[in-house]
Design a protein that fits this description.
By secondary structure, the protein is of the alpha/beta class. It contains 13 helices and 19 strands. It has a six-stranded mixed β-sheet. α6 packs across α7 and α8 crosses α9.
Amino acid sequence: MHDQSLPHYVGLDVGTSTVRCIVGVGDVEDPSKASIVGFGKAPNNGMRKGSVIYVDDVAEAIAQAVTEAERLSGMQIHQATVNINGSHVSGINSKGVIAISAANREINDNDRLRVEEAATIVQLPPNREIVQVFAKNYRLDGQDNIKDPVGMQGVRLEVDTHIVTASLPSLRNLDMALERVQITPNRHTFSSLAAAEAVLSRQQKEAGTLLLDIGAGTTNLLVIEDGEIQHVAVLPIGGQNITNDLAIGLKTDLDIAEKVKINYATLEDKSKKEAISLEANKKTQTFKVSEIVMITEARVDEILDYIEKELRLIQRSRKLPGGVVLVGGTAKLPGIAEFTREKLQLAVRVGKLHNISGLVESVNDPSNSTAVGLMLLDMLLAPVGHDGQSGAFKQNTKFLGSFNRLLKSIRR
């Protein structure tokens, strides 16, 4: 049991196949770390490709995961930082320009906010909403690549931003599911950004890295360079597509195909076995290992084709010194790092959690990266003075340079 009076932070990852809830507190010995004190997960049957289809089913999955995390941590959960997922999430580049009117022409925090606001004046369809705005760099009277203009002097301030938008109906449905279980979202953010916080080092964020979160129904990708978000996309394809292909290719039921995927699917044909047998419904079925590998490879190859297209779109194909970091359930496929390296011609590794203590063993799995990252964001973005811990935590964290001030969720 943990001290109820301790401020606690919650990440809620509402995924296509699973809802995960992680509870953390500030680590007493090392304020730069978060200590995990609770973890819960539950199967989710109410979503398709990251979007809510059945509100009741999603609410039930959230309730189960939260209850389990409450039981383990001994804390009551009423608020959380929640992810938004689904192919309706997309990023656009936008510029903002303002004139500096102060007599001394010195730029203050208010000017910086004004120029970022100016960048959000974009024509959006009525069913879309801005979720987050990231400033990539500022220009002052033509001087480029300024990271922080406050305190400088000039007349014309510009900013390049990356704006993440999402579909309003999808956001409403997610909020309805949260409302039913009486969880208030402190903020919404997208899955790949949370995962980046859990697994990327400052060096990787500076050098230029692609974070790939391959979940069940979606693949989230995030390109981060110079510590700033350069590109965000969500593809409606993931591990469930591998399961579906196996079901069709092996002419078997979906639940058997899922077992085959989890236990035998691989991208490295090292198996000495020619065939494997699985027992289900009192019948034994036999499948050729070579067929399983061929089907898995074809689908992963297709997912990576889409990712390569996204990289070409932003002129980063084969040009990311930080390489690729893989998270999400599909990152557990044996041989996926090597396969991705060959395909994208970049260094690839599976993401490892950093900056956390506590129940690390129970969450140390690529499929939990997003939930851990959401909990870290809940802690980082807690209101200043919310507790004694988070101030020290904020100063020590290897966090996206400007994220703390820039993550302005315009919703609510």
